């Protein structure tokens, strides 16, 4: 019981509450800035965690459906959607460009399957256009995954320095008050020094969780981007085997 009451007793009798009560206006403004930075960083982390977890779950569902047979356009022609899966955006971009090269239109209608069955295969140069479309989709998806990460990076690098600024400012004011009073004693300096140190403590409390969250998210997002590149290569290989006429390509050379 004593161990459970210790943090509350510490805060009530002194510590952070005592330091905040004795902080100056600049110090409180810095604390307010750090509080807002903490809100933004936690909101970004929670949002990104949810998006990534949903994307990974939908990715598994999409890959299971895609690899269920050897028809790479089946999901596209059946109009099945896997919204929230970045890998589906790559698939959709590739299928859209391929069907445009095959049929002159990417619209899926009642006659789509019949037109696809009698469509002439594409050449290697047309396939390169399809590959370029998938690479562009990978880049756009990567930018969406990495969006708002600058807020976490700013919290990690900026919060400790902002807290240090408040500490230096507070110590400077404390020594200025001591010099004006003409005498120095511990009782007079302790409140000012304590109030000065609270900004550094708060800055670290903001930066440390943001650092762990940032490192986890960056590592996970980089792995997802590699997976997108790998899937784009896999899809291009499937398209090559089924829809590229290499004989016609060689005859044109």
Explain what this protein looks like in three dimensions.
This protein has 253 residues and is mostly helical. Helices cover 83% and strands 0% of the residues. It contains ten helices and no strands. Helix 3 packs antiparallel against helix 8 (149-181), helix 5 (86-103) packs antiparallel against helix 7 (124-146) and helix 8 packs antiparallel against helix 9. It is rod-shaped and about 95 Å long. 28% of the residues are buried.
State the total count of DSSP E strands. Answer: 0
Low-confidence stretches: 1-13
Shape: rod-shaped
Cα(first) to Cα(last) distance is 85 Å
Helix-strand category: mainly alpha
Largest sheet at a glance?
Answer: none
In summary, what is this structure?
This protein has helices at about 1-15, 15-20, 25-65, 75, 85-105, 110-120, 125-145, 150-180, 185-245, 245-250.
List the helices and strands and how they pair.
Layout: H1 2-13, H2 15-21, H3 25-66, H4 74-77, H5 86-103, H6 112-118, H7 124-146, H8 149-181, H9 186-243, H10 246-252
Identify the notable features of this structure and list them briefly.
mainly alpha; rod-shaped; 10 helices; 83% helix; 253 residues; single chain; disordered N terminus
């Amino acid at each position: 019981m004593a161990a459970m009451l210790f943090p509350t007793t510490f805060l009530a009798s002194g510590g952070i509450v005592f330091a905040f009560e004795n902080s100056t206006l600049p110090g409180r403004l810095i604390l307010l800035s750090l509080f807002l930075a903490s809100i933004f960083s936690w909101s970004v982390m929670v949002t990104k965690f949810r998006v990534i977890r949903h994307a990974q779950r939908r990715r598994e569902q999409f890959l299971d459906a895609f690899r269920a047979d050897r028809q790479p356009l089946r999901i596209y022609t059946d109009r099945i959607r896997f919204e929230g899966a970045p890998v589906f955006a790559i698939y959709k971009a590739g299928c859209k460009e391929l069907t445009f090269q095959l049929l002159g239109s990417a619209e899926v209608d009642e006659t789509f399957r019949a037109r696809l069955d009698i469509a002439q295969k594409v050449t290697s140069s047309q396939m390169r256009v399809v590959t370029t479309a998938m690479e562009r989709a990978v880049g756009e998806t990567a930018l969406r995954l990495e969006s708002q990460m600058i807020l976490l990076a700013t919290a990690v690098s900026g919060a400790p320095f902002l807290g240090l600024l408040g500490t230096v400012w507070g110590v400077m004011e404390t020594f200025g008050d001591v010099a004006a009073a003409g005498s120095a004693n511990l009782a007079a300096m302790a409140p000012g020094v304590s109030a000065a140190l609270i900004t550094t403590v708060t800055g670290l409390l903001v930066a440390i969780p943001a650092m762990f969250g940032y490192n986890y998210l960056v590592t996970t997002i980089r792995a997802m981007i590699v997976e997108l590149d790998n899937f784009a290569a896999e899809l291009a290989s499937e398209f090559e085997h089924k829809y590229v006429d290499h004989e016609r390509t060689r005859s044109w050379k």
